[in-house]
Design brief:
This protein is α+β, with helices and mostly antiparallel strands and 98 residues long. Helices cover 18% and strands 42% of the residues. The chain contains 1 helix and 5 strands, in the order E-H-E-E-E-E.
Length: 98
């Protein structure tokens, strides 16, 4: 993977699911609702001064969201940060940089 360039999309892992779950409450607060289903299905990464995770999350029925979560470098000891997200996505929407 190139520094600065996003990786190819790949199936979500246990780590990706943990990252999504750690920002779930922030998204629920912003959206004003709770999600019974919140399952990471695929992701891309981008190396910067840390790592941006672009994660496609199934939130129930045919609805999906795209999350952008920043993970700082280990020595910085910072929590994951929800940078932004996009709602109203479908299973077939490409996970792209935003």
């Amino acid at each position: 993977m190139l520094c600065g360039g996003a990786s190819a999309a790949r199936p979500a892992t246990e780590e990706t699911q943990r990252i999504a779950e750690q920002v779930k409450a922030q998204i629920e607060e912003k959206e004003g609702k709770t999600f019974d289903v919140f399952t990471a299905v695929e992701f891309k990464t981008q190396l910067v001064a840390g790592t941006n995770y672009f994660i496609k999350v199934h939130v129930g029925n045919e609805e999906f969201m795209h999350l952008r979560v920043f993970k700082s470098l280990p020595h910085e000891n910072e929590q994951l940060s929800l940078h932004s997200y996009q709602g109203s996505k479908t299973k077939h929407d490409e996970l792209a940089y935003f």
